[in-house]
Every structure is written in C-alpha cells, then in structure tokens.
Amino acid sequence: MNNPILIAKSVTKQFGGLVAVNHLSVEIPEQSISSIIGPNGAGKTTFFNCITGFYTPESGEILYRENRIDGLRPDQVTQLGISRTYQNIRLFSNLTALENIMVGFEPHLKTGWLDAVFHTRRYHEDEEAAHNEARRLLRFVGLAGSGDQIARNLPYGAQRRLEIARALASRPGLLLLDEPTAGMNPNETVEMMHFIRNLRDSLGITIMLIEHDMRLVMGVSEQITVLDFGEKIAEGLPSEIQSNQRVIEAYLGRGAATDGMATAHEQMQKKVDLL
Amino acid sequence: MSNANRLHWQKVIQIGVIGGLVGVLIALVGMVEEFNRRDIVAGVLTMGWTLLFLTILVTGYFAAAQHTGNQGASSILSGAIAGLIFSIVLSLLVLAIQNFNLRPVLVNASPPLVRILTFERENFSGLALLMVLGAVLGAVGGLIYILPGRVRSAVLLGLGLVAFLGLMQEIIQVTLRSVPSVDSALTWMFGRGTEKGLSAAGAIVVFLIVAVGNYLWQGNASKVQDRFAKLPFKNQRSIRWLLYGLIILVVLYLPAVLGLYLTEVINVTGLMILMGLGLNIVVGFAGLLDLGYVAFYAIGAYTVGVLTNLSGELTWAVGMNFWLALPIAVGLATLAGIVLGIPVLNVRGDYLAIVTLGFGEIIRILALSDFLKPTIGGSQGIVNIPPPAILQVVINKPQTLYYVIVAGCLLALFIGQRLRDSRLGRSWKAMREDEDVAQAMGINLVATKLLAFATGAAFSGLSGAILAIKLGTIYPHSFALLISINVLALIIVGGMGSIPGVFVGALLLVGLPELLREFAEFRLLIYGALLVVMMQVRPEGFWPEATHKRELHEATPDVVQADVVQAEA
C-alpha cells in the first residue's frame, strides 16, 4: 500500500466533560477512498473539523504529508491541500455558482490590493485563471450553463455538486466529503457513488467520506473506520466491517447482537446485497 | 356568497380602514396642512392633497392585490371600495374635529385642516366630493394594479416625474431662468412667477412625454442594445468614450449652471456619497456591521483642522498646506481603521455593531474632552481652517469645492469598483455570506477584514478632510452618532453592496431632504416610514447589486480586446 497521506495519532477533542473524539488514530492511504461511519453523535464530523482546523484537538497529532496540521487555522490547512464539503450544504448562497467556485480557487491567487486597483498583469492572469478553472469545474460536475445562477436558486442536487466543485477548485490532495448523499434518493445516491469514484480516478486525489448510506459506503470505500462515542471500534475492508460484531452492536444495540445476531447480520448483508 | 369571497371583501375593507388611519395620521401630524402651502400643479393640485391622493392610490392598489391574479373589474371594484372607506375614515375625522374640541391634545386638528379636507365647501357637498374622489382614486389604484407591467411603469414614471417637477419648481426656475432660450418654455410650463407649481398644460405634456417615451423605450431598449452589441468593437468603444466624454462635460459644467445653493446641496450629498462608498465596502461587501463609522470622518476632519490651522492656539498647529495634510489625514484614518479592526477580528454580527458604536462615541467624547483641549480645541472646536488653493484658484466657495468633492468621489468609485471585481471583492462577499466557510476556502480572514476596515476608513477620512475645508471650522458635535446611522440608512435604501445604490440612497436621503428644508420637521418621520416600507416591499434596496453574468464571457475582455486592437494596428 502507498504511503499514508493523512495520519492521525491519538487525537482527542473534548467539549467540557464530553469527549467527542477519544484517542483516535487513523491512517489514510494516498489516493484511496475511505469512509468514516458510526451512529449519530459518534464524533465523525468533529474529527473532520479537527482535520480542517475548525477545532484544535486537546491532544494528539494530525499529519498531512508529514506536516503537522493540528492547531493551524482553516485557511492554512486549505492552503496545504485539504478541502471539504459540509453536512448541511454551506454555499455562498447569494453569489453565483461561478463566483462560488472562483472563491474556492483562492489559494492559487496572488492579486493584491494594488494589483486590483491598477489592473496589473497579475490581476488579469489571476482573474483569467480563476474564471477558466471555474468554468472547467462547472462542466466537470455537470453544471455547465448554470454558472450565472445564484447558488441558492439551484436545485438541491446541483447545490451538492456545486459544493464539491468549489472544494475541488483549491486543487486539494485530500477531499473530505461530509455526508455527500444526505437527502438524496436511491438513484441520485448511485450517481453520487460513481461520481466519487470517477473523482478519485480522474483527479488522483484522496477522498474521505462521512456517510450513513451503507450502499454507498460498502460500494465505494477501500477502507472503513467505524466510530462510536468518539472511539474507533473497527477498521478494515468493507467485507471485514460487515461481519464485525462490535459494529453490529453499535448500530443495532447490544441486545440485537446477542439475541438476534443472525438477523442483524442478515439485515446488514441485505443492505450490501442491494448493490 | 362563498366563504373565500367573504374573506376577500373583509380584507378589502380592512385595507381601506388601515389606509384611512394612515391618512388620519398624516393629517394629524400636520403634514397635509403644512404641505398645502405648495402646489404641484398650480391651482389644481396642492402638495398636501398629492400626499393624501398617493395614500389612497396605494390603498386601492393593495386592495386590488388581494385578488390572486388579474380579476379585471373585480380588482377595480376592490380598489374603489377601499378608497371609499379611506374617505369615510377621513370624513369621520372631519366630523370629530367639528364636534369636539380636539386641539388641546391634537394641535393640528384645526379649522384650516377641516377647510382643506372639505375643499372649502359646505360640509355635505365637501364630504360627498371627498367620498367620490376617494372611490375614483381607489379605483385608479386598482386599475394600476391590473395594467400590464410595461404600461404601469410608464404611467408611474410619468406621474412621479410630474410630482418631482412640481415639487422642485422653484429651484428649477431659479436655476434655469438665467438661460434666456429656455425662459419662455419655463414660463409656459410653470406659469409666470406667482403660481407655485406646474401649469396644468405643462403637467399634462410632461406626463405624456415621459409616459409615452418610457413605454417606447421599454419596447425598444433591447433592440438598441442588440444593435449596439453588433457594432464592431472599435465603434462600440468610440460611442462609449463619446458618452463618457459627454457625462464628464456635464459634470464639469454643472456648478456654473446650478448656482450657489444647488451646488452646495450637491456638495453635501457628495460628502455623504464618499462616506457611503466606504461604508458600502465594510457593510455591503464584507458584511461587517460598523456603527462607529463617523469616527474616521472625525479623524480625517480633525487631522486637517489641526495641521492647517493658523490661529496658533493649538499646540500642533503648524499651518501646513492642505494638500500635504490631506494624505496624512487619509493615512491616519486608515490606520485608525486597522487599529479598530484588530480587537474586533473575532467579534461578529450584533456584537460588532455595539463595539464599533462604542468606538465612534469614544472618538467624539475625546474630541469634546478638556484633556485634549490644547491639541484639538475641545468643545470650542477648531476655527480658522484656511481654504486651500490650486494654482491661483482659492477653494472657498461651493462651486470650486465641488470639483474637489467630485474628484474624491470618482477616486473612491474607481477604487471601490476595481476592488469589488477582484479576488478581494469575492473574498469580502464570501465572508459576508459565511465567515467560517470563507476561511475554510483558504481566505485569510485577518487580512481580508482589516483591508475592508482600512479601505472604508480611508474613504471616510477623505470625506472628513474635505468637510474641514468646506466648513472652515470643526466642532465635536458635527460627528454625532446620527451621521453613522444616516450613512448606514442610505446604503440600506440604495441596496446593500451596490455601488450605484450608494448614489441613489444619498440623493434620496441627503439630497432630497436638503432641497425640502422647509418641511424639515417631518424629515425623521418620512425617513422612518421609508425604511419600514423599504424593508417590507423592497428589502434589496432601490438599486440592488447586479449579479455578474459572465460564465459565457471571457474572463478579462480588456486583455483580449487589447490584443485584437494591437493585431489590427
């Protein structure tokens, strides 16, 4: 396997007495698609927030391409090459789709105050680069022609894709997707699955997802990490996770695990078989 | 009668009563009586009645709007009924004034008001006329609602312009009478001197010209634009430059035509536009609600005041040339913007508003304090600020100061526009939409916020510096909180984040009240009503920020076109 692009070593994040992420250690291989799953409140999004600099973990280390990134500001983390989307879509809702993506291109722009006022060569180059990149990404996510629409007027699915396009504009090495299929119907979910795989294959980036939809998780992931109450309870290939007893306990309750082990396992299997 | 139908007429009656109560309020605060001293159309329509008529029209319009969709006669009937109820409520006021002594409490419930409302007739015939007029005007309001959009906007623009010309007739006449060739046209339009308003014929002709012209323009605007777009680039550019040249000529020539008073009004408005352009960057683009904006205005003014002062009473008065002091003033204001920005970097929304409000007050109180009296004059302020000169021209009257203010506004306009269309403008707007996500996109919040504060403060400081030479004296009370509020209000009315909106807002909230000084006591009332109505009806402002449609355009047309020109040459 490749070198890991992201290493988390014993990361802990507390909110008062609540331990949201507890001594979590994860290694994400380069150019992989990995998923983080777990029941609600397991600390998945908190972990994402620790990686992207929204939160600073109390202890532990996070390394991205051998650089420590815990404690950095979100903009510094992005400059290094990590980009993300949000569980509940957070577009710049009064800007156009094109402008949204152009904002995402920010880490590659150097136009300063004076460049902007005097329209220097650098300003023209920057604007052209951002504009072209934005149009390219619009096409890439299938939104060509919608670039001049105000983001909040776009349909739900288009907003999801626009958010991914915006995240891609910074040309990240690692893309974090927080529940990319939330609120989507089964067809759209399958589409999204192909889209994610295509993303990795064509751009060669590493993708981490948080996801509740088991079909997507099992279908697309090469590595799955399962969290429960902030702790890692399992890690491995989809097939390993499906048969892991602690995972079934976490999802379906201890009773289910002891009494109805067979049925629980069947349910899990059914979900996977749907693929 | 079906249930929905009954509900509908109930609503119409409700709107009529509410409209009527607004009419009563307008009458009781004294606006009808006060405004009645002026005519809009001489001998036909007074300003007080115009106000009441407008209220009835709006009432009829809203009553008709109760129908979903265009219901033809029924909409007009709704308007008429609401208008009639409006008149009934107003008539009740008349009867109440006649039969009870309301004057101890309601000072304006006076016999002159009754005479106005009954058209100086007998009670019965006067009130009957009022009812008929109310019903007719309400019906007209309903009619306006069901007119096709193109006709409606043409009619409204025509009516609006007639009202505006009537309102401004005195200023227009005084200004334009000096030009001999338009004198006879003016006489025909406004009558000869004694009447205060448009002549009836003048009003009708103005209305027809404007309404028909607007109607035709709306139909053909896109054709004209198409034809313009099809012209070769070279011709387009020369037409554009011709237009710019024309505008520049008009702007340069304006003070010579307008005379002292109007130029002064433009200057006052110009200083507010300058401040508005700055605050628009802070609040409109970057979304940082700053209520202490007047502080930078004060810093700009005081810096110029202290440095150029000649009286020798102030310790730092060095009698510097204004043109040297000006960049120092702008620089100090910018620095103050950054210094204020640093502690509030992590303060958001309402809290930011309170902190900046405090900062504004601190500066004002410092200016008032005895502690700083030896340096900046305390409550006595700074007097004897000498007027500056360019070459041999001394800038000591509105007509010369005008050019300084126009230059300042153009500079601010230029910088503001260029910043808006760059990476910085996008970062500001992203920050306004969602600060956290903006940061996660790689935007350095500290630099971006401070730049917004600094640019805004610089424009405000420039405005203050010009104010110092405009007044020749500065007092602490010139920098009250109300100025910050006014600038904010003009941005809201014009349209948050819209540069042309700043101009519209300033003309409406600063220029217009300045022209209607005789009604100054109603200024704040109208202000408040306007803001409330704006928020309800048009929260995006009069001239909202345009979205840039550019997906299918090239990123930087200038470059591409410049290359083409070079290739051709």
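The CA atoms of residues 182 and 220 of chain A lie 16 Å apart.
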